[in-house]
C-alpha cells in the first residue's frame, strides 16, 4: 500500500468517513551547508521523492485528533487547550510529547495566524510517512509540512510557503523542544524538481540552483546507516551553544558574520574546541558559496571535493560524524564516488555520495562490503533526485 493510501485508510478506520483531502510534503537531503542554518548562514538542500501524507478533514466540534501509521494510539486535544499544552513561554515541559507534538505543535503555531481562532473547526488528521524516520532525511519537517498544508487549507488561512516553513520550525523548536534551524522546513516547503534550494538563512531569501546531475551522467546515492539520530538530545544542542559562544567571543550577531580570513585571529581568542566548532561553520559557509559557484561555472562534476571537504570538517572539527558515516563516506570514495559526506544533523542518519550512474553498482557493493567488514548492520541504499514541495494530492 502506498503511504497516501495508508493515510486515507487510517483516516477512514478512525473516523468512519472519507477525508476532505490528502496533503503531502517531502523529506530532504542537504547537498552541503551543515549546521550553518542556525548560524544565519547558507545551505543547499533539496526535497526528495519520499513524502509524508496527511489525510484530514474538519470536525463538528473544536477538538483535534491526530493518528499515524507509525504509532498505535490516537491523541486528541481541544483547540482551546493548545496554549496550555505547549506552555513554552513559561519554560514548562509540554504535556504532549513524542510524535503527536509535531502535528499538534503545528496546529498550535498556526493559531497565531488565525484572525478568529475562536471560530476554527476541529480537525481529524491521519498521517503516514514515506520518509524513513530517524534517517536524517527530515521526516519531522515532512510531517510538519504535510500537516501545515492541510490545516492551512482547512482553516482557510491562506499562508504562503515561507510562513508555513516558519510555522513548522516554531512547532519543532517550541512544541517539540528541538533547537533546530529552518533549513529542513524551507527545503520541504520550497522543493522543486531538478533544482536544489540555495537559501540564505538570515534573510530567508532563496533561489533554485539547477544541479544537472542526470545530464552529467551522475546520481546522488543516499546511504542510510540505520543508526538513529535525535535532535532534541545532547550533541545538537551542545554544538549550537558552542557556536553561540564563539559568536559572542568574536562580538558578532552570528557566525555568518565571520570570514575565513578572520579565523587566524579567532584561534587566539577561544579554547580549542570552540575554535574548531567556529572553523567548521565559517569554512562550511564558504563551501556552500563555492559549490553554488562551481555548479554554475563548471557543472556538478566540479563539486565532489567540496562535499568531501565538508565531511572532513564535520568529522574532525564539528565532531558530529559516527563510525558508520565515516565508513560509508570512505567506502564510497574508494569505489570512485566524486564526493561524499554525511548529511543532516549528524550523530547517525545518512551519508550521501555523488556517483557516476554507471558506477552505482560498484559503489553500492563497496559500501555494503565495508559495513559487513566493520560488523555494522547493512545500510539502506537508494538514489534521490530533487523533487516537488508540498501539494494537495486528493
Ligand atoms: C537538522 C536540523 F533540523 C537543521 O535545522 C540543521 O541544523 C541540520 O540538522 C544540520 O545542518 O536537520
UniProtKB/TrEMBL annotation:
Output the GO biological process annotations, alphabetical, semicolon-separated: galactose metabolic process
Q: What class of enzyme is it?
A: transferase
The name of this protein is Galactokinase
Q: Which InterPro entries match?
A: Galactokinase, Galactokinase_bac, Galactokinase_CS, GalKase_N, GHMP_kinase_C_dom, GHMP_kinase_C_sf, GHMP_kinase_N_dom, GHMP_knse_ATP-bd_CS
Against SUPFAM superfamilies, the record matches this protein to: GHMP Kinase, C-terminal domain (SSF55060), Ribosomal protein S5 domain 2-like (SSF54211)
Q: Which NCBIfam families match?
A: gal_kin
Q: Where does substrate bind?
A: 34-37, 236
Family per record: Belongs to the GHMP kinase family. GalK subfamily.
Q: Where is the GHMP kinase N-terminal domain?
A: 102-192
Question: Which residue intervals define the domain Galactokinase N-terminal in the entry?
Answer: 10-58
Residue ranges constituting the GHMP kinase C-terminal domain according to the UniProt record: 293-372
The biological pathway it contributes to is: Carbohydrate metabolism; galactose metabolism
**Can you supply one Gene Ontology CC term for this chain's record?**
cytosol
According to its UniProt record, which residues of this chain constitute the active site? 184
MF-aspect GO terms: ATP binding; galactokinase activity; magnesium ion binding
What is the annotated localization of this protein? Cytoplasm
Q: What is the organism of origin for this protein? A: Microbacterium keratanolyticum
